[in-house]
Design brief:
TIM Barrel; 5-stranded parallel β-sheet; 17 helices; 23 strands
Length: 524
Amino acid sequence: MKLHYSLDSAIVLDEEQGKRILESLRKANVGTIWLWGFFFGKLWSPIPDMVRAAAVLRDAGFEVGVIQLPVGHPGNGLNPEDDSLDLKLPSHWRYRVSREGEDVYYCADIEPNMIADNRSSIEQLTKEGFTKFFMDDDLRMGNWGKDIEGSFDEQSIASFNAAYGWNVDRSELHAILNADVQSLIKKDWVRYNCEKLAGFMDAMALPGTELGLMVMHLGDERHGIDISMLNERVPDCMFRVGESHFSDQVFQTPEDKADEMFSMMLHLDAMGRDRTFSETTVFPPRALSEKHLVYKAQMALALGIPNILFMSGTWLISESYWEKVEESRPQLLQLDRYLNAPRAYPVHVAYGTHGYVESIDVNLLPLFAGLPAIPMRSGREVYHESGGGECLLFFGAQDITPEWETRFAKYSRIIMDQTAIERNESKLRSGGIVYERWERESDSGTEERIQLLRKKLADGNMAFPSVSKGDFVSLIWLKEADTVILLNLEDKPKQAALTYLGAEREVEMGALEIVCLPLSRQGE
């Protein structure tokens, strides 16, 4: 377990504030500081100041890297309480353009001028001894959401047409992307934008540097983020999994916490865990409580993420947060003991193919039900976390694509809900696909549906542990370590029960408690 934070060089160099902050970080066992580098087309601090700050940090025992904001966030994504921030992009950069033909302000397109300026910043910093660079999650080709994104400016569309042999304008492309039908042009447009982002990373990969990409919550190929492609272009790339819910307002309910887990697991299955980082963020300032910040860190460790990256925009996380991290160290260390143990997910939750066909929704019910479940994308060639799988839950607006048909044979059970059955009625009617019908819709996390899903899976003589009592308790199975991790997703005590191989064990859980339980004691 390694803890990280990002800081302004000016804070590090401030004799009074810097010493106080660094002492708090040391007590909280933070070991790496990422200095603010090239933001919105300009260096946040002069390079000589960054060099001096790095020396202070290294003398104090910290490792040092640089965080970059190469594209820019829509709106004030640094600190909405600070209206003095200069977020304007350089005049010679091209803005990203929306489907409607409007500039996406504060966000650049990935084009030659911005690539050259970003590369120049890394060239200058590497000459001064900096070698690790993390690109913030502004490096993407669209904003968060379900739509297929990209920059719809005239130059980009002309470049796309020339590269892939199409002849469309913006309005035609907009209509094609909105249509709920499979088409080659959708696939080509997604590929084009993923190539733009991978090409940017390729251009930043100077000899002797280590690069990383922070992926936004549920970010995927629709937003230009093809993790498999990035792994090929930038070997040993660092990745930050996409989280969200940076305030108590949106991290209060079990749905909020399970949604966070879903995105993290989706990305881990594509990235692998060795070089991954969490997104343990407070934003806007003070919006997330200390207890929830620690819970986020514990959740990341439970999933096997070795690097906890605390972030807070340009607002400085206050002393009370670091005191809470220090106070919670025993709980963090308990999870750290199991950090390298393989996770086992015999239950797979279908989540589309490549990201350019289905209109798919996050389904959290298996996580609420305490099943060892992970989201599964059928279009990947490499799966780091999900493994083979025993049972596939094919719920919601999923298309049975050729990739899914190939994967179906790998499962001993395929369970479909009514929505998925109706969407794929003609293909299922033709026969050849053996599946079980689940009569109840599965798009809600009600207590009744949790119990119904548990009963449906229990009817199949499950050979894996699961939660049999207690709603909104998630489970992670460390099969080789003969252990499970249970996560109480609610801020209240809970009486749960764990079932494995016919034996049931009662488990009392405190509010927001995450516990490691050896299965060898099951039935005692």
